[in-house]
Amino acid sequence: MIEPVRPLIDPYQRVVRDLRISITDRCNFRCTYCMPTEGMTWLERPELLTFEEITAIARVGVERFGFDGIRLTGGEPTMRAQLPVLISMLSELRDPRTDRPVDLALTTNGATLGLHARALRTAGLRRINISLDTFSPTRFFEMTRRNQLDKVLNGIDAAIDAGFDPIKLNIVAMRGINEDEIIDFATFGRERGITPRFIEYMPLDADNSWSMDQVLPAEEIVETISTRYPCTAVQRGSEPASRYLYDDGKGEFGVIASVTKPFCESCDRIRLTADGKIRTCLFSLEEHDLKSIVRRGGSPDEIAAALEAAVGTKWAGHAIGNVNFLRPKRSMSQIGG
User: Is the whole-model pTM more than 0.70?
Assistant: First the structure.
């Protein structure tokens, strides 16, 4: 007997619809706001969820609770071997109420997309976000500790050529680092038909060097862009980005104000780490183990019960900037972007 779809609702009456899945903690960059230069201890292969285990958990989310969005993250997800195989497996998941396929997306640094974009698209990947924080080769090396800006730009072209639409460009905006490139990113997006999304710098760096004065507020970003390209705000739903349409019709951009204007009251996401832990918030201090359930052959009912128990602990929101804020023990690369 097929279980009827029922919404997964947290204690604050928010309906969970989106599952972020980290498939590896490894990355080919060493971005300063994400991980230290050296000293990272990587998960061993047996500690990672297998493709079958990932799919089993995702299937329960989609078929039992009506999740309509899945995003694969890392680390850098393209470092996971045979990624198109996982994409193909997840792309088969369909909402039993509508028979529509799940909205399957990927966040990547883009450095290897020149090799993988077409295969990922063929396997069933629907949308892609590419992270890029600067157009300056010198600044790129300082921020990522890698000299691969050309590969990322080639990766963006490869994603366009492969037919991904929309393509979003994730930019971590940092005062004193890349605030002088805000207009450049807006122009780049308008010219290429892609959507820049400016993300406020969050306290998830491995070196614990984050401070509030490094945050470039979303309000300032919008004001900067609107002086060159007049724009109009679009009413925001549950998505993390506030959207702005250019008044001349040439596309849009988004800002994610996680620090200055948190959107926790409309959050519909939970996260699955590469080693099989559920986190109900990016800044959660608590994790819920699913790997042990799927690894011993746990039934869909057991997985569903574990998801419900985890979501039952979801808090009202983080407290960045408050005296009672506590950083999570894991850095961004270990949690999943």
Answer: yes
* Residue 337 pLDDT: 61
The answer to whether the Cα torsion of 160, 164, 165, 171 is positive or negative is negative
Residue 164 located in a structural domain:
yes
Let me know if residue 215 belongs to a domain: no
Contact 170, 202 (CB under 8 A): no
Cα–Cα distance for residue pair 173/256, rounded to 1 Å? 10
The answer to the question of residue 173 being in a domain is no
Strands (E), the chain: 8-9, 15-16, 18-22, 69-73, 103-108, 127-131, 167-173, 195-200, 231-234, 242-246, 252-256, 269-272, 277-279, 288-289
The CATH number linked to 61 is: 3.20.20.70
Residue of 57, 54, 58, 66 whose CA lies nearest to 4 = 66
Report the C-alpha gap between 251 and 233 in whole angstroms: 12
Domain count, the chain: 1
What tokens appear for 38 in the block? 């050296």
**DSSP β-bridge partners for residue 18:** 69, 269
Residue 2: per-residue pLDDT: 62
- 238 inside domain: no
Distance CA(186)–CA(228), nearest Å, equals 9
Which stretches does DSSP call E strand in 17-68?
18-22
DSSP 169-190: EEEEEBTTTTGGGHHHHHHHHH
- By residue range, what is the domain housing residue 161? 8-168+188-195+264-335
* Pairing assessment for the beta strands 242-246 and 231-234 based on DSSP bridges: antiparallel
Instruction: Write the burial class of residue 141 (CB in 10 Å: 0-12 exposed, 13-18 middle, 19+ buried).
Output: middle
* Strand, helix or coil for residue 25: coil
Distance (Å, rounded) from C-alpha 337 to C-alpha 335? 7
Judge whether 73 and 23 are in contact, CB under 8 Å. Answer: yes
Instruction: Chunk the chain into consecutive blocks of 10 residues (it has 337) and report each block's average pLDDT, rounded to whole numbers.
Output: 83 96 90 70 92 98 96 95 98 93 96 96 97 97 92 98 96 95 98 96 66 90 98 85 96 93 88 95 87 97 98 82 56 61
